[in-house]
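Morning, I've got a small favour to ask if you have a moment. The fold is given in discrete form, as structure tokens running alongside the sequence. I'd be grateful if you could look everything over and explain what you see. No rush at all, and the record is pasted right below.
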Amino acid sequence: MVRIRGMAWGLALLGALTGGAASAEEMVSKEQVVAYVDRMLAHIDAVGIERAFADFSNTKGPWIEGELYPFCHSLNGINVAHGDNPNMVGKGGVLDIRDPDGRYVNRLIFDKVLAEGKGWVEYKWPHPRTKKIVMKDVYSVMVQGKYICGSGRYR
């Protein structure tokens, strides 16, 4: 009898049930997103804000983990780090970005974090690998009272 443990077992079972459609990216949980953002905060504490933001924006670096990537915005609406699209870094207007339904996604994030210090929001967004429009759950936190940083999972 062959034993399959942990995530491999879950992927094997899900793949069998869905005709092989399951992937590791589909397995990202909210707990994994929170742990990822907690690691982001620890990295900021360890290396400083400037170095951490540069690290977060390196698309070939260790912060890209499947569909997980970091983002950070200043409170005045300028992107300061983006693991999926480093061309966004330094650009303003993040508060005017809308999802396909016309919802201002970063305003949702800012409202949640400014009110509660951290939290979840959901909206529609293109998956970074498949480019299909899917629901995204984003967990964000306040950083040093000046930035909002987070990551998310796709459903």
The beta strands are 71-74, 79-82, 118-126, 133-143, 147-154. The chain has one domain: 28-154. Helices lie at 6-17, 30-47, 49-56, 105-116.
